[in-house]
C-alpha cells in the first residue's frame, strides 16, 4: 500500500457527510468555489471550466461523479485542484478538513462494506481521529480516455 500513497500523507475532504482522502502529492491547491463556465453536451458531473492564472481547468463535481442524489451547494463548496497525468483538474467537494499522515499498515484494503461509491475508486479505509476515511485513488476515478474525451469536448466548444 505504500506504493499507492507514497508520502503517507492525505488531504481529507468531505462529500455527502463522508470523509475521503487523496494522496497529498496529487493536490496542487485549494480554491474557494467559483462558478465554472458551463460546457454544452458534457456529462452531468462536468460542471464547466475555470481560468486559473491562464490555464483552463475542467471542474468536476465529485458528488455527481460518485452518483450522490443531493446536488452540491455552491455556497459551501471548495475546488481542490489536482494533477492527473500532465493536466490539472478541479474537483468540487463539500469541504476540506485536514492533511493527515497515515500509517500504511493501518489501511484496510479488503472492504466488505458498501461505502457509497464505486469500489474501483477505493484504495482502502483508514481510521484517524476516531473517524473512518475512505481513501480514493484519484487516478482511477477518471480513466485517461475519459479525461481526453472531456478535454477534447471542451477544446471543441471554446470559440477561438
Description:
- By secondary structure, this protein is mainly beta.
- It has a single domain (9-154), classed as OB fold (Dihydrolipoamide Acetyltransferase, E2P).
- Helices cover 14% and strands 42% of the residues.
- The chain has helices at 62-65, 138-141, 144-157; strands spanning 9-15, 18-23, 27-32, 46-52, 55-61, 78-84, 87-93, 95-101, 122-128, 131-136.
- A 5-stranded mixed beta sheet has the order 8-1-2-10-9.
- The radius of gyration is 16 Å and the shape is globular.
- The model has no long low-confidence stretch (mean pLDDT 84).
Key terms:
OB fold (Dihydrolipoamide Acetyltransferase, E2P), five-stranded mixed sheet, 10 strands
Write a compact overview of the structure shown.
This protein is mostly beta strands and 160 residues long. Helices cover 14% and strands 42% of the residues. The protein has three helices and ten strands, in the order βββββαβββββαα.
